[in-house]
Amino acid sequence: MEFVYNLTVVAHMLGLAALVGGYLVAVTRAAEGLVPNVVMVWGARVQVLTGLILVGLAEGALDYEVNNTKIGVKLLVAIAVAALTEIAAARARKGKAVAPGMVHAAGALAVVNVLVASLWK
């Protein structure tokens, strides 16, 4: 089960890379209008899904001790990131104006989630 957990950690990190990398690409193409790209949206989705799987594996199968307050904060931030990217992408698909603040907030909150994960002990 440890192997599955480690594979899920890899998927979680790849989701983070897609989310932050997609944000950086969106910012560099901001002259065309700041909209989240498909990589950013899928990165946010992967982050939420793999995060939930990691907590389930850690508490259930591996009997790790999990800081539930930290996990709750991270889940709240991850859902906010996913919501911001989904809403902005849906508005862009419909041809409506996307508030650049939504995309910037999603990118900033993704970084906040990394800080919470690595600095909260």
What's the helix and strand layout?
Elements: H1 2-28, H2 38-61, H3 68-93, H4 100-119
Helix pairs in contact: 1-2, 1-4, 2-3, 3-4
Question: Structural class of the secondary structure composition?
Answer: mainly alpha
Fraction in beta strands = under 5%
Number of helices: 4
Distance between the amino and carboxyl termini: 25 Å
Low-confidence stretches: none
Main sheet makeup: none
- Helix and strand succession? HHHH
Commentary on this structure:
This protein is mainly alpha-helical and about 120 residues long. The protein has four helices and no strands.
Supply database-style keywords.
single chain; 121 residues; mainly alpha; 4 helices; 80% helix; 0% strand
Task: Kindly summarize this structure in a few lines.
The chain has 121 residues and is mostly helical.
